Amino acid sequence: MNINQDQLIIFITVMETGSFSAAARQLGKVPSAISMSIANLEIDLDLKLFERIGREPLPTPQAQSLYEKSKQLLIEMKQWKQHAFALSSGLEAHLNIVVVSELLHTRWTDYIVLLEQQFPELQINIFSAPQEDALHLLMTQAADLAFMFEREQLQSSEQFVELKREILVPVAARHSPLAESDQVSFEQILQNRQIVVASRDRQIKPELLFSKHYWRTDNHHSACSMIKQGLGWGVLPLEMLNEHPELQHELKILQLLDFTPKFEYFVDLVWSREHQLGAAAHFLINHVRNLRKTGK
User: What is the pLDDT of residues 38-52, one digit of tens each?
Assistant: First the structure.
């Protein structure tokens, strides 16, 4: 059996127009070519598709059954050709994106929607990880792009474009001792357990670590759950509290007395100079750059 795209188009057109001659006119062919194509298709399928009684061919039940499947198959064939053309034009086979755990609450999915609209056949894989692990995934080319916080020291192979600002705030459960004070001293911070979002690699020291005693987790959701239980204080995204008003009743933003830590960060779209990026990755990078140029 060797069914080609032209045969499917002719079969579908005959079904929709109701005759060989009408299909021929619509497709710009002679009626004999349409009739021969249908006859060859019947031979290939070993099925009778049309009853040739009277002036117009009548679809058989078998033809009616194949009609919808033929339309879907034709769509898939067109999509396959479009995807093959995109791949030959530089589209990557798949795009791996890692999102830093604390940024999962942000509107990062807007960028994924944009990619899906532009490259509907592209396979996109999303991972989440703490900051240090996200950078490792990027530098080992396990990820193509990363949404992550600005870094104090950049690796030579690292390249980025800024997306937005993100504010992190120190919080504690409202029933915890720390929340009883209007202002919290540095000594209190040092002596109280901190719940810190950190790499799964315990050899890597967490970046936003202040307390002498701390517990680690690899995402801000579990950190938030432990902080709400009074197991320690921690640093969470302010936008997370704004999007979930119930958290504001359970958590208190701590006012630090002795120092003002740098809790306001830029969020970057990051990639490696040493990694050969495809069309979709370049599209997203250029989109973000254009947004910065226009100030949107």
Answer: 999 998 888 899 988
Q: How many of the other CB atoms lie within 10 Å of CB of 64? A: 11
Q: Which pair of tokens denotes residue 68?
A: 């919808």
Place of tokens 């499947």: 69
Give the separation between CA 9 and CA 165, rounded to whole angstroms: 53
In terms of phi and psi (left: phi > 0; alpha: psi -120 to 50; beta: otherwise), the region of 284 is: alpha
Is residue 218 a contact partner of residue 244, using CB atoms and an 8 Å limit? Answer: no
Reduced to 3 states, what is the DSSP secondary structure of residue 147?
strand
- Crossing angle for the helix pair 61-88 and 5-17, nearest 10 degrees? 140
Which residues, in sequence order, are CB contacts of 20 under 8 Å at separation 6+? 14, 31, 34, 35, 38, 57
Which tens digit of pLDDT belongs to each residue from 145-170? 999 988 877 777 889 999 888 888 99
User: What's 108's DSSP letter?
Assistant: T
Q: What is the pTM of this model?
A: 0.63
The strand ranges marked E within the chain are 50-51, 58-59, 94-100, 123-129, 145-149, 158-173, 194-197, 214-217, 233-237, 251-253, 264-272
Residue 189: strand, helix, or coil: helix
Question: In this structure, what token pair is assigned to residue 142?
Answer: 């396990």
C-alpha span between 151 and 205 (Å, rounded) = 14
